[in-house]
Design goal:
The complex is a heterodimer.
Chain A lengths: L2 H9 L10 H27 L6 H11 L11 H21 L7 H14 L2 H29 L6 H9 L4 H26 L7 H36 L19
Helix pairs in contact in A: 2-4, 2-8, 2-9, 4-6, 6-8, 7-9, 8-9
Chain B lengths: L3 E8 L10 E8 L6 H11 L19 E4 L2 E4 L12 E5 L5 E4 L2 E3 H11 L21 H11 L6 H4 L2 H5 L5 H13 L7 H8 L13 H5 L6 H14 L1
Parallel strand pairs in B: 1-5
Antiparallel strand pairs in B: 1-2, 3-4, 3-5, 6-7
Classes of the chains: A mainly alpha, B alpha+beta.
Bound molecules: protoporphyrin IX containing FE, iron/sulfur cluster (SF4) and FE2/S2 (inorganic) cluster.
The site of iron/sulfur cluster has 14 residues of chain B, from helix 4 and helix 6.
Chain lengths: 256, 238
Amino acid sequence: MSQKGTIESLTGKNSQKKKSRIPAKMDFLQSATGAILALFITFHLLFESSILLGKESMYHLTKFFEGEFLIEGGSPLFIVFLALGISVVFILHALLAMRKFPSSYREYQRFRTHAKLMGHQDTNLWFIQISSGFMLFFLGSIHLFTMMTQAQNIGPFASSDRIYSDMAWPMYLMLLVSVVLHAGVGVYRLIVKWGWFDGSDPRASRRRHQKIIKGAVLFYLLIGLFSLATYIKIGYEHQADYGERYHLKGEVTHAD
Amino acid sequence: MGREITIKVLKYNPTDSQSTPTFVEYTLEETPGMTLYIALTKIKSSIDHDLTSDFVCRAGICGACGMLVNGKPQLACRTLTSDFEGGKIELLPLPTFKLIKDLSVDTGAWMEKMSLRVHSWIEKHEETDLAKLEKRVEPAVADEVFELDRCIECGICVASCSTAIMREDFVGAVGLNRVARFSIDPHDTRTDEDFYELIGDDDGIFGCMSLMACEDHCPKNLSLQSKIAYMRRKLVMS
Ligand code: HEM
Ligand code: SF4
Ligand code: FES
C-alpha cells in the first residue's frame, strides 16, 4: 500500500494536511458525463425519428453516420466506435452517480417517507431520476451492446425487423421512457446545481426552466413514441421478408 | 363561534422507557388569527399539560418552533390554522435533529457542531491592529453579507433535505450558506483553498444533490440555490 493512500485513509488528509481533490473531480465528472450523455441523446432521438419523414430519410442518415461521405458505401465500424465511446461515458456516469443512491433499508425508508410527507416537486423528481437511472443500467447496456455487435443491422428494414420480429420493442419502449425522463430531470438538475442561466431573478428562472424542460420531455416522448410505432408498423409489414435490406429506388447494387 | 379544528401530534419521549411513540388527536375551537403557536399553547394549558413544543419569540425570529406541518417543514408560530381548509393538521417533530420530546428537537447542538465544522467566524491571515480604523466595506457588499446573516438557524432547510435525511453528516444548506457568507465578507481573508478544507467533500458542498427543498422551505426566503451553486462553482475549481 502506498504511504500516501494510507495517510489519507487514516487521517482524511494528505501529508501536507490537505483534503483530497477527488470529491471535487467526481462531482464535476458526474455532471460532465451526464451533460455529454444528455447532449448525445437529444440528437440521437432526433436522428432516430427521421423514420417519421420516411424510410429514405432514415436510410440517408444511417449512411451518413456510417461515414459514406468519407469512404464509399460507408462502414458500420463508425457506429461501433460511436457506441464504444458512449459506453465509456455511460459506465463512468453510472459509476459516479451510483454514489447518490440510497444504500440501505434505513436510508431508503427515510427518504421515501420524508418525500411522501413533504410532497415537494424537485424531491419527487429526484426519485424519478434514480429510478430511471437504475433502469438504464440494464436497458442502456442492452442497447449499447446491440449497437456494438450488430452495427451492420441498422436501417429502415433492419431496425424495424429487430424491433418487430426480434421483439425488441418492449425494451425500446422502456428505454425511451426512462432515458427521456432521466435526461430531462438530469439537465434540469445541471442547471440548478451549477446556477446556469440564473439571470437577475434565479427563482423566476427556475420556474421558467421547469417549464422548458417539461416541454422538451413531452416533445421527445412524443417523437420517440411515434417513431417507435412507425418502426413497429414497418417491421410488421416486412415480416415476410425478414432480413431483406432496404435499397433506394433505382439502386442497382445489392451491397446493403 | 369559530370552526372546530383537530390537531394530531406524534407524542414520544425517548428518555422515558415507558413512553411509546403514539399519535394523539386534540380537538379545539379555532379563534380569529390563530397560529399554531396559539393552538398548541391552548392545548398545553387546557387539554394536555404533558405536550412539549418549543417557542420563544412567537414572531419568526428565534427559529425555535420548526416542525412538520402536514408533512411540510415550517415555523409553527408563522403558520395560521386557517390555512388548512379541512381544519385537520398533523404535527411531527423535525427529522434530522435529536428528538427531545414530542415536537421539541435539539437544533442547538446540531447548529453548534455545524458552526465549529465550517469555522463560522471571521478568520484573518494578518494580525488585527486595534489602533487603526477598520477597512471600509462597500455598502453593496455589506448588504449582501447581511442578507445571508438573516438565517435564524431554524433547521428547516436541513429537515427538508433528502441528503440530510439519508446522510447524517451532511453539512446542510444552513452550513453552506454560512460559508458563502464568510467568503463574501471582505473582513474574512480565507481563500477558496481554506474553505475547501472545511467543506470540500461528500458531506459538504459535493454532497448536495440540488433537490432545492431548502430553498423552497426556508422561512427567511434566503437564496440558498444560488449561494450553494456559487460555492460549488468556486470549490470545484480550487
Ligand atoms: C446506468 C445508467 C445511469 C444511471 C445509473 C444514472 C444515474 C444517475 C443518478 C443517480 C443521477 C443523480 C445524481 C445526483 O443526484 O447528483 C444522475 C444524474 C444525471 N444523469 Fe444519469 N444515470 C444513467 C444514465 C444516464 C444517461 C443515459 C443520461 C443521458 C441521457 C444521463 C444523464 C444525467 C444527467 C444530465 C444528470 C445530472 C448530473 C448531475 O446532477 O450532476 N444519465 N444519473
Ligand atoms: S437557511 Fe433558512 S431554513 Fe436554513 S436554518 Fe437558516 S433560516 Fe432556517
Ligand atoms: S417561536 Fe421563534 S421562530 Fe417561531
